[in-house]
Design goal:
Serine Threonine Protein Phosphatase 5, Tetratricopeptide repeat, alpha+beta, 3-stranded mixed sheet, 3 domains, 440 residues, Trypsin Inhibitor V, Chain A, single chain
Length: 440
């Protein structure tokens, strides 16, 4: 082959090699922009603005035309209160991402809302790279650690196409940078024509600020004393609404229920409804028991006084119902028990009285009972209405259980409301006043 042809062939090969080298130098390594944008937004939503800013900066170091990164970075600075920096970022975005009007609209809206920060001058580098030391371990650690490794190429490599030498094939990409000279006209566009757009984008900025509103988490109040719970609620800007309920699974004045789940985030001054155990009836029942014991020592008709703390009841056994009286002082102790039960047992009857039905005054339990195979009755001695309701079991009744179910109750010779039968087949009469109660 002639020497001249060999030189021409070698020159062509050299040119091709140069083209491939230049293309390789000008290519940016693959950078997960979409994934990085998502991670940066997650940091922003978690109110971790510094990490979001660092990651947005890294994105822009790799892709200076990324509209989402300019807007996200500006939002992060706005949330931190640095409006001047946000304006700088958006002005930079208008220059480099000129094909996307959203950055300009964002800048117009921000400049209209904060006119004192318009046409801000850069006070330093626009972007800052972040490293592993800048990010704490959390649920986004794995993603954020991957990004720095792929951004190791220094930003100075971007303008490397200067080495493209003579080949005309590399000139075409260079001409794409020429539109940079058109950026000033974009920034000086008449704001009047964009005013409506700017007005619609203002709520976006406002919404971003709203996400930073303070919230408080609801503690676990169950198991706490009501006073301690009230202090904790006040400390956490919460209001407790307390409802007292009879409950013996918790100590007295201890919260046993709350309507809001622990850890729920709510606005400050929210209300939490709780239930407070009230089980001091045991103590009051003991006071009533001691009063009855003292009464029994002075009244020989009272043979025995027993207390069942589990069922909140006091049982007194008497020789006769006639003449049995309970002093008002003792009645007061009984009333304080709320749902305690007084059981009076005599040879002829069993009387049950719930403390919630006793209002005031003296309890007169004097009564006579009688019965045969055709009828049985009770005579309650009292002046007018009793201040309690008593369920009286007539134990002297001799009427068979099968027969008594078809009989009726008459009160002072008038047909009454009826009666019930206990497990032993004995009639149970409800009385709330003196009178004659007859079953036949």
């Amino acid at each position: 082959m002639p020497l001249k042809k060999q030189l021409i062939l070698l020159s062509m090969v050299f040119v091709v090699v140069i083209i491939f080298i230049v293309a390789g130098l000008g290519r940016k390594d693959s950078f997960p922009v979409d994934e990085s944008l998502k991670t940066a937004r997650e940091y922003y939503d978690k109110l971790d603005y510094d990490k979001a800013i660092a990651l947005y900066n890294n994105i822009l170091n790799e892709d200076d035309e990324c509209t989402e990164a300019y807007i996200g970075l500006a939002d992060a600075y706005i949330s931190k209160g640095n409006i001047k920096k946000a304006v700088e970022i958006l002005e930079r975005g208008v220059e480099y991402a000129e094909d996307d009007a959203s950055v300009y609209e964002k800048l117009s809206a921000l400049s209209e809302e904060y006119p004192d920060y318009g046409n801000a001058e850069a006070d330093g580098d626009y972007y800052e790279e972040y490293t592993d030391d800048d990010i704490e371990e959390d649920e986004f650690q794995q993603i954020s650690e991957e990004v720095p490794e792929e951004t190791a190429i220094p930003s100075e490599t971007v303008p490397e196409p200067e080495t493209t030498a003579a080949p005309e094939t590399t000139a075409a990409p260079e001409t794409t940078a020429a539109p940079e000279t058109t950026a000033p006209p974009v920034t000086t566009a008449p704001p009047a024509t964009n005013a409506p757009v700017a007005a619609t984008t203002v709520p976006t900025t406002t919404t971003t600020v709203v996400t930073t509103e303070k919230t408080v988490k609801i503690p676990n109040f169950v198991g706490m004393n009501k006073d301690e719970a009230a202090k904790l609620a006040e400390k956490n800007d919460l209001t407790l609404i307390m409802e007292y309920v009879d409950d013996y699974t918790y100590e007295n004045d201890v919260i046993n229920y709350q309507d809001s789940k622990k850890g729920t985030s709510v606005p400050p001054n929210s209300t939490v409804n709780v239930k407070v155990s009230r089980n001091d009836s045991r103590e009051r029942l003991a006071a009533f028991y001691n009063s009855m014991k003292a009464l029994g020592d002075s009244d020989k008709n009272i043979a025995q006084v027993l207390m069942n703390e589990k069922n909140l009841s006091v049982t007194i056994s008497v020789g006769s119902m006639k003449g049995l009286k309970i002093d008002e002082t003792v009645t007061g102790d009984f009333m304080n028990c709320r749902n305690a039960v007084l059981i009076v047992v005599s040879p002829s009857m069993r009387m049950t009285i719930n403390s919630s039905s006793v209002t005031s005054g003296e309890m007169n339990l004097s009564a006579d009972t009688y019965g045969n195979e055709k009828r049985c009755g009770l005579t309650m001695s009292a002046r007018g209405k009793l201040n309690y309701t008593a369920n009286v079991t007539i134990s002297e009744c001799k009427i068979p259980a099968d027969s008594i179910k078809g009989m009726s109750l008459y009160v002072d010779n008038k047909k009454g409301e009826g009666f019930t039968v206990d497990s032993d087949g004995k009639p149970v009469i409800t009385v709330n006043s003196g009178g004659s109660y007859l079953i036949y």
